[in-house]
Amino acid sequence: MATIVLHRPSKRNAFTYEMWERLPQLLLEAEKNPALRVIGLRSSESEAFSAGADISEFKIRRLHPADVEHYDAVTAKAGAALANAELPTIAMISGYCMGGGCDIAVACDIRLCDTHAQFGVTPARLGVVYPAGAMKRLVDLVGIGTAKYLVFSGQMIGASEAERTGLVS
Fold first, then answer.
1. Is the pTM of this model over 0.85?
2. Is a pLDDT exceeding 90 seen at residue 129?
């Protein structure tokens, strides 16, 4: 198994632009190795799988409409790369899994979590639109009603509720 480890503990593994950009490359590298049968994603610590996108970058990376379009294309490419990976992908979730972190987890084939995991689709809190591909994957996984609740409310749900809705196994 190849393991991609998210390691930005000071930012709860919030994804930088560079991390979004690098993820498809890491997946391709793993897929080229014939000895590998699965790709796992996990955090280096238990507090958070990922707090999502690093919003401190938004004032630079999403300043103008063209910047927003480019940034969104990079994040969409990362999600699509996971969703379409040739090898099975497993998100091993501990702690917070929010926003773009939830997008990454939902793009994986299997999502496993500990009992302390907390999930939230929080772009509405920031006035940001959840990407179309991510939204489709979420709806396909949990159904339209649960997806709307998560996206519109921005509320967090715990591990047992995530399991009940089909967000995790």
1. yes
2. no
